[in-house]
Amino acid sequence: MKKSIIIFLLLSISFVYAQEKIIPLPASTVVVVKTINEFSGENLKTGQEVDCIVATDVVIEDYVLIKAGTPVFCQVEDAESSGMVGSGGNLVISVQNTTTVDGKTIMLSGSFRVKGESSTGEKVAIGVILCPLALLFSGDEAVIPAGTQIRSFTIGETKVKIKE
After folding, report:
1. What is the pTM of this model?
2. CATH number of 2-163
3. Span 28-44, mean pLDDT?
4. Of the residues 43, 139, 142, 163, which has the fewest C-beta atoms closer than 10 A?
């Protein structure tokens, strides 16, 4: 009786392990990242954390290693509101990491960058010629609309466990 229980347990354990496959996720694999909300240099602060999502499944060897919709952690690297004399705003959000289907954190490299249009030359010319109050007008804000997508890349290779 003991032998049959041991054999059953060994078969069960080998069956569980046979159901897992290890797939390498290579370095520099493209991960498309999408903004969920609109981001503006006027409303964000440098160092602030913002959330995005993976836009499309990351598939290697016909296996999904990172699912679309998986949260992506991002951080504001630079956020400047538009300034006087027509200077435009600036916004840089760097992509930090996401998670594979087996729960591993994957470091990513990529960033959203946008600069608001500057009209400094026009404002100075108008201010000098017509009205000094024109110098008080600001340039355009730096805005990243909701749904904006960028390509980011995995940093380093990782082994991902897939259940078959």
Report:
1. 0.73
2. 2.40.128
3. 94
4. 163
